[in-house]
Amino acid sequence: MADRKGKQLTDYPRPSVAVDTAVLTVAHGQLCVGLLTDGRSPKRRLPGTFLHEGETLADAVRRSLREKAGIEGVEPVQLHVFDAPGRDTRGWVITVANLATVRADAVGSLPLIPVGDAAGLDFDHDDIVKLAAMRLRADYSEHPDPAGLLTQPFKIGQLRELHAAVAGELSQPDTFRRRMLPRLSAVGIERRGSVGKPAALFRRITID
Amino acid sequence: MADRKGKQLTDYPRPSVAVDTAVLTVAHGQLCVGLLTDGRSPKRRLPGTFLHEGETLADAVRRSLREKAGIEGVEPVQLHVFDAPGRDTRGWVITVANLATVRADAVGSLPLIPVGDAAGLDFDHDDIVKLAAMRLRADYSEHPDPAGLLTQPFKIGQLRELHAAVAGELSQPDTFRRRMLPRLSAVGIERRGSVGKPAALFRRITID
DNA sequence: AGAATAGTGTCTGTGAGACAGTATGGT
DNA sequence: ACCATACTGTCTCACAGACACTATTCT
Q1: A159 and A135 housed in the same domain
Q2: Record: contact B16-A14, CB cut-off 8 A
């Protein structure tokens, strides 16, 4: 038998474990992803790094985003492990795909590309971007701004425009309002600013 | 910089990468999980193995189930990577949790425990079982027998009992029928067997 | 007054859930 | 005749989607 204690931990070859992160944000009314161009390949790629000893995957994601893009304080979400044997020509590398959703003013130095235009990336990063966008859209279709992209409190119109950017289509204002209201808590009225009836201000309901 | 080509692939310490699999099935009207007791720990655990070079995670899952329980032909579903630094006292090991759903007559030598009773397992295997059960229940709440546990064709009553076992509660026959019918295709009538009106036979609709 | 934005009343359709009924077989 | 199982008619409730209407502010 090959599973005596200790044997596998020392004798077997081990893969390099990487993390790659789709940094998603909403800019110019569109869902965008942050892409790097580094020297290793002419193709664009997602920011990533190899996992260090004593480090969690989430910490590795935070380190890679801090070092490569100056992004701080993200809470990554694990998506999927990509493990195709030939996916990295440099050797045996598996990667844990992650999603980090950040505000557009916090993407640091990372160039943003609309997710629809993010094709032809290095490795399997096209698939990671698709997965990340699907996940974010699924989350936003059920909850008001689950990633906390809006500054609280916010107006329903702002929330609707954000959701439109994420989903790629604008919903009816009345339907959207009624679907979101049960998950919002009113905290006052817009003081004043532009034309029109002052809007009510809301926060997300934390307890669900 | 520490990301010159080749450097990380050779210089950094690498984790052992394991797969651990919650083998779920329905037996005695209950959702059950297959648990091992091996010599390494007094606690029960999920079947697992270390990832070998040139092998995908799904192949490692299939190998571990074949070798440790005689289970063949499963299609594992990736759930989550568990990476807590101290999760394995033998060293630096991260594990990819998987779900494999099999028929009760195909669990081989694996002892079955109702998922509700599967607590106090080794490592973080309690969490893996919970995750796997949540995932399977979510799948079954939306589709008729997505894991293919029933022999086709089947009667709606059989499908309802299977779903009751997975969900842990029996739904109303008429509501269940109407919810599932749009996703089923009628293929005939029960020839005869027990008392009562002969039931219609169905297959799952593949195109969705 | 008119434009612009916020919000409501109400109709329609759909689908879950529940109750009671009908249909078809065995004993 | 009676029971057991399969299936259907129909009512209620809730909610999404759409249209038209009212409300409140600025210019």
Answers
A1: no
A2: yes
Compute the distance between CA of residue A32 and CA of residue A117 in angstroms, rounded to an integer: 9
Short-list B120, B128, B112, B119, CA closest to B29 = B112
Would the CB atoms of B6 and A90 count as touching at under 8 Å? yes
Q: What is the 3-state secondary structure (H, E, C) of A187-206?
A: EEECCCCCCCCCCEEEEECC
Q: What DSSP state is assigned to residue A118? A: -
Same domain for A75 and A162, yes or no, is no
Instruction: Give the residue carrying structure tokens 């038998």.
Output: A1
Q: Which nucleotide is nearest to B202 (CA to C1')?
A: D6
CA-wise closest residue to B169 among B141, B129, B206? B141
Give the model confidence (pLDDT) of A114-148 as tens digits: 999 999 999 999 999 999 999 999 999 999 999 99
- Provide the number of structural domains found in chain A: 2
Q: Strand ranges (DSSP E) for chain B?
A: 16-27, 30-34, 48-50, 77-82, 93-101, 112-114, 154-155, 184-189, 200-204
| pLDDT tens column, A24-79 | 999 999 999 999 988 788 899 999 999 999 999 999 999 999 999 999 999 999 99
Residue where one domain finishes, among candidates A142, A164, A182: A142
Residues B104 and B165 reside in one and the same domain? no
Which chain A residues are closer than 8 Å to B91 by Cβ? 9
In a domain, B1, yes or no: no
pTM greater than 0.85 (yes/no): yes
B181 and B87 in a common domain? no
Please report, rounded to whole angstroms, the spatial distance between the CA atom of protein residue A191 and the C1' atom of nucleotide D24. 13
* CATH code at position B196: 1.10.10.10
For residue A197, give its domain range.
154-204
Last residue of a domain, one of B113, B142, B171: B142
Smallest Cβ–Cβ distance between B9 and the set A12, A16, A80 belongs to A16
